[in-house]
Write a structure and sequence with these properties.
alpha+beta; 5-stranded antiparallel sheet; 12 strands; 33% helix
């Protein structure tokens, strides 16, 4: 069918008590993941953001083939995320090796990424406090790193480059929750005029469909220190690489200090 422009495979995985939808776009090799929070509008919004990252417009008349061997809830959630898209849903056959391979690799990539982050933090005597917010941050980090740095289909292009249709400059990246110096945006500068151009921060993930970085920065306003999520215009790495403990004392929803 000439109208089939995109092909997705999707499946559920579980991380402790959290249900996660993981999906893979066949032509680019891009992956994405959505923590199923029960807030359907929120979850569908995250799914559509991943589609945009994969070069798929959620507003144009795009036809998408969806293959899944999971329960009908996968198809119901995905096909209702954007009514402007035409969906062709196929149940993957029991021996559908092409589907099973893509789905299993995507799930394995996500689980291995979580394990690597946990190991890095454990080396700093830190442990993840795995809740909806932190797991969403981690999976966004893991999927972006896969899309930005892996090689798609054995080529010299990354999945993100195939999705964008052009060669991209080296992305700005840092280890998850590592300390960086973040250049604050003008909107934050207006609210905190005494703040320095670069502030102490920890790295979260790339900003959706942007070259910017999401960080948690330390801001001083009216003599009060606050830790604020913001979209940094740029970041500078600190040498040697460190994980600043002062952030974790206030951001216990992300990590906890182990004893």
């Amino acid at each position: 069918d000439e109208k089939i422009q995109v092909a997705l495979t999707a499946d559920f995985m579980f991380v402790e008590d959290h249900k996660v939808l993981v999906f893979h776009e066949r032509s680019t090799g891009c992956i994405g993941a959505v923590v199923m929070t029960g807030d359907v509008a929120r979850d569908r919004n995250v799914f559509c953001k991943w589609l945009t990252e994969m070069g798929i417009s959620s507003t144009g008349g795009v036809a998408i083939q969806l293959a899944t061997d999971a329960e009908p809830a996968v198809a119901a959630f995905i096909t209702s995320a954007s009514e402007s898209m035409q969906w062709l849903v196929e149940k993957a056959p029991p021996q559908g090796h092409e589907f099973v391979g893509a789905a299993e690799r995507s799930v394995r990539t996500c689980k291995e990424g979580i394990s690597v982050i946990r190991s890095e933090l454990a080396d700093q005597n830190l442990g993840l406090n795995l809740n909806t917010q932190s797991l969403s941050d981690i999976l966004r980090y893991v999927c972006h790193s896969q899309n930005l740095f892996s090689h798609a289909h054995g080529s010299d292009r990354t999945p993100k480059e195939l999705a964008s249709g052009s060669k991209l400059k080296e992305p700005t990246f840092a280890p998850f929750l590592a300390r960086v110096l973040a250049e604050i945006p003008d909107s934050v500068k207006k609210k905190c005029p005494m703040a320095s151009r670069f502030v102490d921060a920890i790295y979260i993930a790339p900003v959706w469909n942007s070259v910017g970085c999401e960080v948690i920065g330390e801001l001083s306003s009216n003599g009060e220190i606050r830790f604020v999520r913001l979209h940094a215009k740029s970041i500078k790495h600190t040498i040697p690489l460190t994980w600043s403990t002062k952030f974790y004392q206030d951001l216990h929803q992300l990590v906890v200090r182990e004893h």
